[in-house]
Amino acid sequence: MSTFLGMPSLPVYGTGNLHASQSFPKAAHRELGNAQLRANLGHATHTIRDKRLNVVSELPDWENLRDAGSAIKESVMARLPELLEQFEANFTARGGVIHWARDADEANEIVAGLIRATGETEAVKIKSMATQEIGLNEYLEEQGIAAYETDLAELIVQLDHDKPSHILVPAIHKNRTQVRDIFLREMEGVDPELTNDPARLAGAARAHLRRKFLTAKVAVSGANFALADSGTLAVVESEGNGRMCLTLPETLITVMGVEKLLPTWQDLEVFMQLLPRSSTGERMNPYTSLWTGVTEGDGPQNVHLVLLDNGRSAALADEMGRSALHCIRCSACMNVCPVYERTGGHAYGSTYPGPIGAILSPLMTGIQAEENNSLPYASSLCGACYDACPVKINIPDILVHLRSVDVDSKRGKKKIPTQMDIGMNAASWALSSGKRLGMLEKGLPLGRLAAGPDKKITKLPGIAAGWTQSRDIPAPPKQSFRDWWKKEHHAPDTAPAAAYNQEDQP
């Protein structure tokens, strides 16, 4: 393991579903045209958001818990190689087998090889962001292995040949009627009179999955936490499907990002209060499963864990951005984000949508990777995500940091100034002197010539065109504030300049 983590000289070849195939502005424009999507998202995010606020307000020490969660995760990042070695020793001592995967390609090959070794061609799956990240289902299908999602929302997405659009609720972009139509179209033996009643839909899914649970010999899972001091893995879920997958099959294969470690059992206490309240708005999680290696005659007898880097070393190396690895995948940031609420998860292109995806994906793939350089701009920087994050990831600050990295990367070795550079330098020159600003304000009447009959400027040149693509600019006023002030107060010509700039003071 000592040569696995943090080796920039070893390239990451395949990062799976972390790359956007289209820039966020283009994808967002497409998704904004879907009125049903916006209605579904608005209803779902507001419901979850309100539930979270109610249960969080019950805890007088909520902010202290957030501080504790942040401190624990910061400690993990500072000691990650040491904790990974400790976890590996404890996990293997209890009968588990560790596999190290540098990227998505290696992880997929490992999982497929383990399934083939059992002689099986099917596996049941627990909802897992890590397996979504590496594109495991698609890879297994290419290898002739069928992977069946058992989480209800993941099942809906899989049956519809769609992709998840939310970390917690993958099918958040679909309503009950759409789900019923999917079941009628894709499920074998479903009642043709199936309604969109949630209980009826859940019953249909349960009947569909029952045979899979009882016959599957192999299960694939993710993990919410891993405890270094005991080699224990933990999965939290709300439906009981995870418990079925973790206990009935003979072989259990877990794929987990290396950042999911916690140092001790005691640390789990903090996160078992933070996670359910932040994710589902519940006081405690309905199903919490923990397993430590192999127990003879009880549960899976072949227990494997694939520890996944896949760009996490790159994120860890970024001093400003590494706190993105503190994320516990609660989705609280997404439920309060005005951008996500209107565009949905598919607009982000990556497995990780919303505010956390806007920083995590570029950090893990590199800001220059394909279209990922547009993700840090998918934010209004309102700060709601930071306020909601249970481990206090300062997403707005990291977004600004990544934007600066993106701008610097586009300058190239020759440092050729961009339109933004020229514009900022011009603004600096004008705004640093009251006299220069006053001189430029004399040209306001010329700006009015660019306005149309409705006294609005609807199109600007260059990079400023991005502003007028979705909004108009009012025509400049007939006179500047300075001119108005001089007229109303009969101030001397030099007074405004003197008031605004020390450069002009004697």
Q: How would you characterize this protein structure?
A:
This is Iron-sulfur cluster binding protein. It holds the Pfam family Fer4_8. InterPro entries: 4Fe4S_Fe-S-bd, 4Fe4S_Fe_S_CS, FTHF_cligase-like_sf, Helical_ferredxn, LUD_dom, LutB/LldF, NagB/RpiA_transferase-like. It comes from Arthrobacter nitrophenolicus. This protein has 506 residues and is α/β, with parallel strands linked by helices. Among the domains are: 253 residues, NagB/RpiA/CoA transferase-like (Rossmann fold, 3-Layer(aba) Sandwich), CATH 3.40.50; 65 residues, no CATH class. 49% of the residues lie in helices and 10% in strands. It has 24 helices and twelve strands. A hairpin with a 4-residue loop joins strand 5 and strand 6. Helix 3 crosses helix 12 and helix 16 packs across helix 18. The termini are far apart. 40% of the residues are buried.
Q: Remind me, CATH topology of the domain at 62-314?
A: Rossmann fold
Task: Tell me the strand percentage band.
Answer: 5-15%
What is the CA-CA span between the terminal residues? 66 Å
- Low-pLDDT windows of residues: 6-12, 495-506
